[in-house]
Amino acid sequence: MEIIARLANLPGALPGACAQGLIWGIMAIGVYLTYRILDVADLTVDGSFGTGGAVCVMCLLSGMNVWAALLVAVLAGLATGLVTGLLHTFMGIPAILAGILTQLALYSINLKIMGKANQSINVDKYGLLISLRWVKEFALHNPIIMVILATAVVIGVLYWFFGTELGCGIRATGSNPAMSRAQGINTNFNIVLGLAVSNALVALSGALLSQYQGFADVGMGRGAIVIGLAAVIIGEAVFSRIFHNFALKLASVSIGAIIYYIVIQLVLTLGFDANLLKLLSASVVAVFLAVPYWKGKYFSKPVKKAKEDAKNA
Amino acid sequence: MLEIQNVSKTFNAGTVNQKTALNGLNLKLNEGDFVTVIGGNGAGKSTMLNAVAGVWPVDEGKILIDGVDVTRLSEHQRAAYIGRVFQDPMTGTAATMQIEENLALAARRGKRRTLRIGITKAEREQYRELLKTLDLGLEDRLTARVGLLSGGQRQALTLLMATMNKPKLLLLDEHTAALDPKTALKVLTLSARIVEENHLTTMMITHNMKDAIKYGNRLIMMHEGHIIYDVAGEEKQKLHVSDLLAKFQIASGGEFANDRMILS
């Protein structure tokens, strides 16, 4: 009975979960670019997400226009990716470690940007693009609609970019670096470029979240990489069989993030201890990452093999 | 067309695994030369090709392609002059990308990659015609992922990618070694045809002595990081496998040729 009473609260919490999922979905698309396309696990995101939020809030507080603030936040994210990229390619540090170093450094930088651990911004005094206050309104400024539009623009731009000569070079770099170099592709340049684009998106997502929740916090990006991976994996698990187009794959990552936040909301509604949330997230991602490995190791399909043998005979 | 001047390369210098792979190597290829390269394991054949391709910097010496000193150029910069096919069919193509995308990447080798569209409609038609010459039915599978192709198909595609821009130099590093005999013959015949048609200056490493004699106009044998036998023209055509084995035994001081060379 108690559970049913709790579940009755869920519909009211769904719009908020959707909005959060959509915002984090843009970050997850950034993670998809590095993790799936560039084949690099980039841990910079835990830092650059906060950088995006911090820069956006401070720009707004200084009286900047909201669009300009977003642009500055995106450029800051671009710079964080650039740093990780140069640590990796120019200084020869393994990609994972390069990301960790940047992420650690960004903690200090984010503190310096804000001057303290968190900065709030009042939606009544500043012209914010989105706010959780409007999440249940039927209007164009409802954050769900705004962020869907933003996501559509992001996916559109990425779809175009990865179809260009330059974008194809990045995809080739992630797919086969040796072949790429043999075909005259500067793989180091492409890795730096890919990391910069990815972290620009992550910072955009952080900037949107800080507006949505009305504050930026130095710890807001903690665990972002895990949420990003969760969104990528959930999106692939649900849609990989039907979505083959690149734009749809990016959309499935965004939907993956929404599903993630709805599930989290459901678990919380059912009375799960909120302090254990990150443990739950990490466990879920660990299991999902293990599934393809286990599939290959313990559930190989002898049926298919027999068919191939027959064909070869 | 290609000049290798006194090139040396030592791997793991100063450790117990120190290995001098190239030792004062000198070689000059004329335009249109089709050179087959033979030698035992560790003779420096692949190392020579990698040195030319710029996979890592050499310790000393100079490498010139068509008169241009490329010694200090990086691998991707040298790619403007060089087409390569590797031993492992997986190495030469991007498995997660489509056949036409792989061809489009190769078509832009040596050119600046801009924000123009990565593959145009006109190119697609051109690639379809190009793939028809392979006679593998790939012209109907332009948008198939390369990872779905067989090893032989991938090598044929890589060959096409390596040669479509008519490179100044074509490097074939035992590119049929991983294929079954029937497919290997097909790919080898195709290679010879493409080299012939385009008059490409080519170096081909092979473990098969018969192939080394049959193909190309010149043959070189390597041992311990330098060239010990260099033969061209009519003299090369008259060679027999037994001649090569004898040469090899003399050069290596009686040490017997490795099993793979004898068996093949």
TrEMBL record, chain A:
Subcellular localization(s) per the UniProt record: Cell membrane
Membrane topology value: Multi-pass membrane protein
InterPro entries linked to this entry: ABC_transp_permease
UniProt-recorded Gene Ontology molecular function terms: transmembrane transporter activity
GO cellular-component term (any): plasma membrane
Matching PANTHER family: ABC TRANSPORTER PERMEASE PROTEIN YPHD-RELATED-RELATED, BRANCHED-CHAIN AMINO ACID TRANSPORT SYSTEM, PERMEASE PROTEIN
UniProt name for this protein: ABC transporter permease
Top-level division of the source organism's lineage: Bacteria
Main location, first listed in the record: membrane
The keyword Ribonucleoprotein belongs to this UniProt entry's keyword annotation: no
Keywords: Cell membrane, Membrane, Transmembrane, Transmembrane helix
Chain segments annotated as transmembrane: 12-32, 52-78, 90-109, 144-162, 189-209, 221-239, 246-270, 276-294
CDD domains: TM_PBP1_branched-chain-AA_like
TrEMBL record, chain B:
Listed Pfam families: ABC_tran (PF00005)
Residue ranges of domain ABC transporter in the record: 2-249
PROSITE patterns: ABC_TRANSPORTER_1, ABC_TRANSPORTER_2
SUPFAM superfamilies named among the record's database cross-references: P-loop containing nucleoside triphosphate hydrolases
Keywords: ATP-binding, Hydrolase, Nucleotide-binding
GO cellular component, one term: plasma membrane
EC number: 3.6.3.-
Domain of life: Bacteria
Gene3D superfamilies cross-referenced by the UniProt entry: P-loop containing nucleotide triphosphate hydrolases (3.40.50.300)
Class of the enzyme per the UniProt entry, highest EC level: hydrolase
GO molecular function (one): transmembrane transporter activity
Name of the molecule in the record: ABC transporter ATP-binding protein
Source species taxonomy: Bacteria, Bacillati, Bacillota, Clostridia, Eubacteriales
